[in-house]
């Protein structure tokens, strides 16, 4: 006798739809409830071809490595010597990317300046103007020139060490900035000339120029105002970098900043973060090709950003042809963002250490992405600066270790020939051979 | 009086000479001749000098001006007095688009017409236009006053913050969140003072006032189509 | 992304100076477009029943004389022609389609830049000054002319990718801006039988106008419908046999300025391109408003 229903049944397996997975279902439910898109901070969270898919070829018999301490591996970089009378000379090729006072607390901005200065590199303002704390604590400060022009003024322009004209960022190429009301406090609103507490939307295009022909005149204006002293960077979000880099060079940029889709944002629609733009891996070779075709590689410097985490990423980005990299999200983590000691507090606001991305709502228990005076106090700018400097030091030490192993006496001598790819996708995107082969997909048929 | 003739001197010569006045003023009065539509004339000036530009100017004339008093005896191109902080710019002719864009202070007077996006993202400047203005003017205007003695084009004051707009003539259409508001005595008074200061023989009572309905200040489901 | 300039003479007495007046206008737009330049000049009309073509060779040296000899034999009619640098202007008493067919067969490497009774399109890679010198612009005569200096955005810098683009008999187009829907539109127009030689966005706008005109639209109707069909940013100047037209997209970010005196109407991306014109100090100078067509045409010849 057998009764199927009473037999030792196989435990039921719930099958999750690959299409309607839990996240998709949750988002449909959220949208149905609220009627408005989801806004969050950070960069894309999806799995993308990245530097982890590349490997460096260390020296062996055919090439000879350098010794660790005695045999130097240079790390300095000069930025902006195409036209500017006073180019930046940084000790390390890792800079701190633009993040606004408003998105970040004043203490966080000061900490970034302190850390960058200890490490001998630059930090960057953001969509909201320059704070005295930041200027005071930053040896090299890059002043962003954005579509909104919040807080933009010629005095600060003259105080800056370089000027970065922002056309877009990797998290949202083609989109404008956002700062939700919780963070538009009296001081933030005052600096931006906005009513306190508004959900600020920034323009996506500059108000007084559109396209490279007009950009050329705009760059000339800023050079005139600053007497041709300051390097002028042009920052683009990676989408069509081959064309955009060529046009930025034609328009007269000294430096190109190229931000891939892994780059973070203080607040943007989730759908924008996840679906617009391209990763930094395929963006770099396109940018380098554009510069090379114009005879401008190394003459117009290329700073890349979007998902730089460790010294290997730095070395690989430079091997692909970047002159320097910029860090944003990683710098915030170094300051204390998403620290495990905050886990309990993060759980109270619906997140957890390692997952927190609600940078838009100003409740960051780390005191970084907030304007709350009590929360802000939690970040000691001196201690934060020290942590960032440590992290920057490690990034560079790691990159040097790998460069020495490849036989390089300077980081900028790393080149694509030092790289192989682990996957067909990354080989095609980075334009380096698949490991163990001489095959670069997409380059030869 | 110092004269700079742009048929022989460069724009760089002009701006450097003007910037050099900051530490050591040699001349209070400057005349620029043969402008011929050149870009970036008298940008980044930071001293209370008076500058007369003879002829038409190109893009960004008087950009980021501080303290100086600049008169253009002709038309100006895109972005005249963009991001001005203080001082006074007077255009005897007409202005192209984005006049007074993002400017924080000072007074910009355009005797003729201004093109599209006049006063876009303005942050405290006063702009007085003798003629009419083009479409999308005062888009995202944050602070300051825009006065138009003629007509205004499409989508006036779209996504407006706290800029006050006064128009004497017709308005082709108002942008999202921009509404007509009551002219109270204090508005008539401040407008009359501004018209007088700008040198226009107009009566404040002939103007209508427009401002933000402040309905888009915070994200709301009902406004989704306006974003 | 570019500079555009146009000059239409109201006073026929100035026609002998058209090229001389226009050359500094084109060169003033060098910063806006250093990659390539070109112009379409109208004048030296052929009689009804005749056709005038501007040809450019895609190969380095072209034996125009031999080609014209062969063509003469094929068409069984006598030709007038002259060489101008890398281009040749051919006048024949024949149907345009017949000449085109013969050329396609005899000289597949030759590109027809323009066709009509009046128009000549001359363009190429290089700075505006090089182009105007190459083709002897300063000595050219005519009733009106439009020109372009190009800063290439996405498509290649080539002679074919230079403006103006021909859009039909005696019609051409120059563009400042960047279209965002040209890819799909090009596919659709190809299905309608419109031929494209480049990946250039402007060529699609030109092809669109050519198609609308073939369908029987007037220039005004065709331009009005282009405001719907074309997405992105543009200021266009359109040359016609009798004059020229200017139109900007509804957002109107790309600049344009117009000037008019008793002697001429001129347009440019920037005022500085107009500053060399005689009497400009007293001209009426204004900006064209968005999504509105401005047209100047003399009585049909």
TrEMBL record, chain A:
Pfam families: Glu_synthase. GO terms for molecular function: glutamate synthase activity. Keywords: Oxidoreductase. GO terms for biological process: glutamate biosynthetic process. SUPFAM superfamilies: FMN-linked oxidoreductases. Belongs to the glutamate synthase family. PANTHER family: ARCHAEAL-TYPE GLUTAMATE SYNTHASE [NADPH]. This is FMN-binding glutamate synthase family protein.
Automatic annotation (TrEMBL), chain B:
Transmembrane segments: none annotated. InterPro entries: Glu_synth_asu_C_sf, Glu_synth_lsu_3. PANTHER family: TUNGSTEN FORMYLMETHANOFURAN DEHYDROGENASE, SUBUNIT C (FWDC), TUNGSTEN-CONTAINING FORMYLMETHANOFURAN DEHYDROGENASE 2 SUBUNIT C. It comes from the Bacteria. This is Protein glxC. Coiled coil: none annotated. One of its GO terms (molecular function) is oxidoreductase activity.
UniProtKB/TrEMBL annotation, chain C:
InterPro entries: GATase_2_dom, Ntn_hydrolases_N. Keywords: Glutamine amidotransferase, Transferase. Residues 2-299 form the Glutamine amidotransferase type-2 domain. The keyword Transferase applies. GO terms for molecular function: transferase activity. This is Glutamine amidotransferase.
């Amino acid at each position: 006798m057998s009764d199927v229903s009473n037999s030792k049944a196989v435990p039921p397996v719930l099958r999750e739809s690959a299409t309607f997975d839990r996240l998709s279902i949750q988002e449909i439910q959220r949208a149905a409830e609220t009627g408005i898109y989801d806004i969050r901070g950070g960069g894309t969270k999806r799995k993308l071809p990245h530097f982890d898919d590349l490997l460096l070829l260390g020296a062996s018999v055919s090439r000879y490595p350098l010794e660790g301490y005695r045999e130097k591996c240079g790390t300095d970089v000069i930025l902006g010597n195409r036209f500017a009378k006073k180019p930046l000379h940084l000790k390390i090729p890792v800079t701190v990317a633009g993040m606004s006072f408003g998105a970040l607390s004043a203490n966080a901005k000061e900490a970034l300046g302190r850390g960058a200065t200890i490490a001998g590199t630059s930090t960057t303002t953001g969509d909201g103007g320059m704070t005295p704390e930041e200027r005071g604590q930053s040896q090299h400060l890059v002043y962003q020139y954005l579509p909104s022009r919040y807080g933009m003024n010629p005095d600060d322009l003259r105080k800056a060490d370089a000027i970065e004209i922002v056309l877009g960022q990797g998290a949202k190429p083609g989109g404008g900035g956002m700062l939700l009301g919780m963070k538009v406090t009296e001081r933030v609103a005052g600096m931006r000339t906005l009513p306190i507490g508004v959900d600020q939307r920034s323009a996506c295009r500059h108000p007084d120029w559109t396209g490279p022909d007009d950009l050329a005149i705009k760059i000339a204006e800023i050079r005139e105002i600053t007497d041709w002293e300051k390097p002028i960077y042009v920052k683009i979000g990676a989408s069509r970098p081959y064309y955009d880099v060529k046009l930025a060079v034609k328009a007269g940029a000294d430096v190109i900043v190229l931000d891939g889709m892994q780059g973070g944002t203080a607040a943007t629609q989730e759908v924008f973060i996840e679906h617009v733009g391209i990763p930094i891996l395929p963006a770099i070779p396109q940018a380098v090709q554009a510069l090379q075709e114009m005879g401008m590689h190394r003459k117009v410097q290329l700073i890349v950003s979007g998902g730089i985490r460790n010294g290997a990423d730095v070395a690989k980005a430079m091997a692909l042809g970047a002159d320097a990299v910029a860090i944003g999200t990683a710098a915030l983590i170094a300051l204390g963002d998403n620290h495990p000691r905050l886990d309990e507090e993060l759980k109270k606001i619906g997140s957890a250490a390692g997952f927190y991305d609600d940078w838009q709502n100003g409740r960051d228990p780390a005191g970084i992405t907030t304007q709350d005076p009590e929360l802000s106090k939690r970040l000691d700018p001196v201690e934060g600066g020290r942590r960032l400097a440590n992290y920057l030091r490690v990034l560079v030490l790691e990159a040097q270790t790998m460069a020495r192993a490849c036989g390089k006496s300077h980081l900028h001598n790393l080149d694509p020939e030092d790289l192989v790819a682990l996957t067909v996708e990354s080989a095609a995107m980075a334009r380096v051979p698949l490991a163990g082969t001489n095959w670069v997909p997409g380059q030869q048929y | 009086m110092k004269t700079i003739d742009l048929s022989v001197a460069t724009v760089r010569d002009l701006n450097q000479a003007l910037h050099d006045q900051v530490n050591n003023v040699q001349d209070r009065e400057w005349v620029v001749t043969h402008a011929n539509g050149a870009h970036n004339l008298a940008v980044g000036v930071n001293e209370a000098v008076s500058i007369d530009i003879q002829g038409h100017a190109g893009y960004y004339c008087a950009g980021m001006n501080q303290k100086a008093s600049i008169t253009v005896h002709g038309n100006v191109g895109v972005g005249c007095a963009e991001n001005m902080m203080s001082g006074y710019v007077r255009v005897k002719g007409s202005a192209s688009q984005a006049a007074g864009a993002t400017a924080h202070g000072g007074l910009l007077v355009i005797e003729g017409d201004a093109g599209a996006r006049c006063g876009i993202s303005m942050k405290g400047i006063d702009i007085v236009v003798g003629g009419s203005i083009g479409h999308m003017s005062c888009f995202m205007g944050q602070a300051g006053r825009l006065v138009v003695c003629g007509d205004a084009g499409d989508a006036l004051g779209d996504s407006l913050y706290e800029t006050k707009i006064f128009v004497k003539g017709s308005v082709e259409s108002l942008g999202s969140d921009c509404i007509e508001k009551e002219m109270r005595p204090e508005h008539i008074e401040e407008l009359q003072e501004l018209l007088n200061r700008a040198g226009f023989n107009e009566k404040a009572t002939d103007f209508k006032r427009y401002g933000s309905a402040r309905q888009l200040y915070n994200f709301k489901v009902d406004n989704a189509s306006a974003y | 992304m570019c500079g555009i300039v146009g000059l239409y003479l109201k006073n026929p007495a100035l026609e002998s100076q058209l090229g001389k007046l226009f050359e500094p206008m084109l060169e003033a737009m060098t910063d806006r477009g250093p990659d390539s330049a070109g112009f379409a000049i109208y004048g030296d009309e052929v009689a009804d029943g005749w056709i005038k073509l501007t040809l450019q060779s895609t190969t380095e040296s072209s034996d125009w004389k031999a080609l014209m000899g062969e063509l003469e034999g094929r068409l069984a009619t006598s030709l007038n022609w002259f060489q101008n640098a890398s281009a040749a202007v051919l006048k024949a008493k024949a149907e345009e389609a017949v000449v085109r067919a013969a050329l396609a067969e005899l000289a597949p490497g030759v590109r027809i830049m323009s066709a009509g009774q009046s128009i000549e399109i001359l363009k190429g890679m290089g700075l505006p000054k090089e182009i105007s010198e190459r083709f002897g612009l300063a000595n050219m005569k005519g009733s009106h002319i439009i020109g372009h200096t190009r800063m290439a955005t996405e498509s290649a810098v080539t002679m074919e990718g230079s403006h103006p683009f021909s859009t039909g008999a005696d019609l051409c187009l120059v563009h400042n801006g960047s279209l965002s829907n040209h890819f799909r539109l090009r596919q659709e127009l190809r299905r309608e039988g419109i031929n494209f030689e480049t990946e250039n966005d402007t060529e699609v706008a030109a092809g669109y106008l050519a198609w609308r005109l073939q369908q029987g639209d007037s220039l005004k109707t065709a331009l009005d419908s282009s405001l719907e069909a074309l997405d992105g940013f543009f200021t266009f100047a359109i040359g016609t046999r009798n004059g020229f037209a200017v139109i900007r997209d509804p957002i109107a970010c790309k600049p344009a300025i117009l000037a008019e005196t008793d002697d001429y109407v001129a347009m440019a991306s920037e005022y500085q391109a107009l500053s060399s014109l005689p009497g400009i100090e007293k001209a009426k100078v204004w900006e064209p408003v968005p999504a509105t067509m401005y047209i100047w045409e003399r009585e049909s010849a």
